[in-house]
Amino acid sequence: MDLKQLVIRGISYSQTQSGAYALLLEHEETNVKLPVVIGNFEAQSISLGLEKDIHPPRPLTHDLFAKFITDTKHSIASVIIYQIVDGVFFSNINLLNEETGQAVVLDARTSDAVAMAVRFDAPIFTTEEVLSEAGILLEIEEKQSEDPEFSDLVADQSLSSLSMDDLQKLLEDAVKDEDFDTAMEIQEEIKRRKKKIE
Questions:
Q1: What is the pTM of this model?
Q2: Which residue(s) pair with 10 in the sheet?
Q3: What is the 3-state secondary structure (H, E, C) of 48-98?
């Protein structure tokens, strides 16, 4: 299995799903971004896991599981996001028994897997197939869009009625605004059109 390592680029509030957040992972070699919609609790847990100096007064569920893993002489070797089906990511947490060297693979939600990975500084991987299916290939520029009202002009139009150039511009705007749900929809439309051309 050809695995691609991902890094966490950030967590932002989802523009389209109330109470949800977008976890942005990136394959650094290709700049392909992988947005994963996660819940409020998982977003908080991942953020706290990244901030090593902040400790909640009582352990969160992921902290409790991390202590159990450590106390049973295990560690997390890696997390692998191995599949996406109907927009849902599937992941494994790969544990290693530090005394026997025995490997244990646990099926997990991607948000939980990432929350555990940050607590053990474990690498996060995905497959080439997942990256090509759900990844967004964009260089996120710091400068503002030349036409800031562009998104408003096309907001009420069906994606199918827009040109490829307009779709690409709208995709860039969505990523700049960290609206990854919309970005995924636009990218699906672009992929559909490219398949028709082929």
A1: 0.70
A2: 24
A3: HHHCCCCCCCCCCHHHHHHHHHHHCCEEEEEEEEEEEECCEEEEEEEEEEC
